[in-house]
Design a protein that fits this description.
Elements: H1 3-7, E1 10-15, H2 20-30, E2 35-38, E3 50-54, E4 69-72, H3 78-81, E5 92-93, H4 98-116, H5 119-127, E6 143-147, H6 151-162, E7 166-171, E8 180-184, H7 189-194, E9 198-201, H8 215-218, E10 225-229, H9 238-246, E11 250-255, E12 275-277, H10 287-302
Helix pairs in contact: 2-10, 4-6
Bound molecules: NADP nicotinamide-adenine-dinucleotide phosphate and glyoxylic acid (GLV).
Glyoxylic acid binds next to loops.
Length: 317
């Protein structure tokens, strides 16, 4: 590392589909001790010590010889990990941020309440001018199951337990959340699914979780269950989901994420009567909060401290 690079950190914003002007201004404000550049106007690549990435253009990370840290602008890092040029020993930090968490908490709660209160049924009644009041089940009699009990799944679980729902989570290692029953590991997945009437997916996409919502796992849910997928499209096997909806095994699904995004215009999800499609907006990275989170993590890393939410590459999340 040259003396100049050691003296003044240089941050490169290497993102696609992101308002890079807003990020340039925000990081300039939050990290006045650093110089911030935006790809492709990166200058001398040897001067770059930190990279801020989302859908990072291919090959960029492999061309930064003095890189000390990579900061994702999203919680899910499967795309960064899939980059064959990703330097092996540079820490990768994912985004755990209050703005992102608030959005996910709102969205998941909204859709759970939507299904719990049979809003689809009332919309159908309105279309046929039918006045048919029905008592909803009590929340303690509604079993919600959250795949993933991390930053986002854990928060949603706590919120839903606060509404009085009978909430369970599923994780890799045991996770204790007040009022939430935890199941962990593949051995306990079936028990978790069999009790779950509203299934929320908040897992990271890894080799272990790819395609986890499939014909076999959907068949373990009670008949008439609901699915809310806000994690990644690849968690779901599309044809198996459609089959489960068409057979009545599943009552309805809310999908925020898809194998191909934007969802292709001809994809059957768009027009399926039991599917609600939204364009990957359940939790949106908010520049105002996330720039502060990234700045805090950059300072921890430069001070030689351990940075929370550093990705464990062997686990894949
Ligand atoms: P996180 O804090 O890392 O939590 C991940 C959870 O999944 C943990 O509880 C983990 O178990 C569990 N898990 C991972 N692999 C597992 C496996 N093989 N079996 C069982 N459980 C497993 O992640 P997060 O911040 O909550 O984010 C979760 C995901 O949400 C992201 O990766 C991203 O894909 C998605 N996301 C989507 C949006 C959107 O707008 N749609 C926005 C943000 C995030 P342990 O507790 O044992 O580690
Ligand atoms: C969005 O999908 C994220 O991973 O933050």
């Amino acid at each position: 590392v040259t003396a100049a690079a050691a003296a003044r950190p240089v941050v490169l914003i290497a993102c696609q589909g992101v308002d890079t002007d807003a990020w340039l201004a925000a990081l300039g404000r939050e990290l006045p001790e650093a110089e911030v550049r935006v790809w492709p106007e990166a200058g001398d690549l040897a001067e770059i010590t930190l990279a801020v990435v989302w859908r990072c253009p291919a090959g960029v990370l492999g061309r930064l010889p003095n890189l000390r840290g990579i900061f994702s602008l999203g919680a899910g890092v499967e795309a960064v990990l899939a980059d064959p040029q990703l330097p092996a020993s540079v820490p990768l930090v994912r985004l755990v941020d209050p703005g992102l968490a608030t959005g996910m908490n709102e969205f998941v709660t909204m859709r759970v309440l939507h299904y719990h209160r049979d809003m689809d049924g009332y919309a159908a009644d309105q279309r046929s001018h039918t006045w048919a009041p029905r008592a909803p089940p009590l929340p303690q009699d509604r079993r919600v199951g959250i795949l993933g009990a991390g930053a986002l799944g854990g928060l949603c679980a706590r919120t839903l337990a606060g509404f009085g729902f009978d909430v369970a989570s599923w994780s890799r290692s045991p996770r204790v959340i007040d009022g939430v029953r935890n199941y962990c590991g593949r051995d306990q997945l079936s028990d978790f699914l069999r009790r779950t009437e509203i299934l929320v997916c908040l897992l990271p996409l890894t080799a272990d979780t790819d395609g986890i919502i499939n014909r076999r796992t959907l068949a373990e849910l009670p008949r008439g269950a609901f699915l809310i997928n806000v994690a990644r499209g690849r968690h779901v096997v599309d044809e198996d989901l459609i089959e489960a909806l068409d057979s009545g095994r599943l009552a309805a699904a809310t999908l925020d994420v898809f194998r191909e995004e934007p969802l292709p215009p001809q994809h059957p999800f768009w027009s399926h009567p039991k599917i609600t499609v939204v364009p990957h907006i359940s939790a949106v990275t908010q520049v105002a909060t996330a720039s502060r989170t990234v700045a805090t993590n950059v300072r921890l890393l430069l001070a030689g401290c351990s940075v929370p939410d550093t990705v464990d590459r062997s686990r894949g999340y």
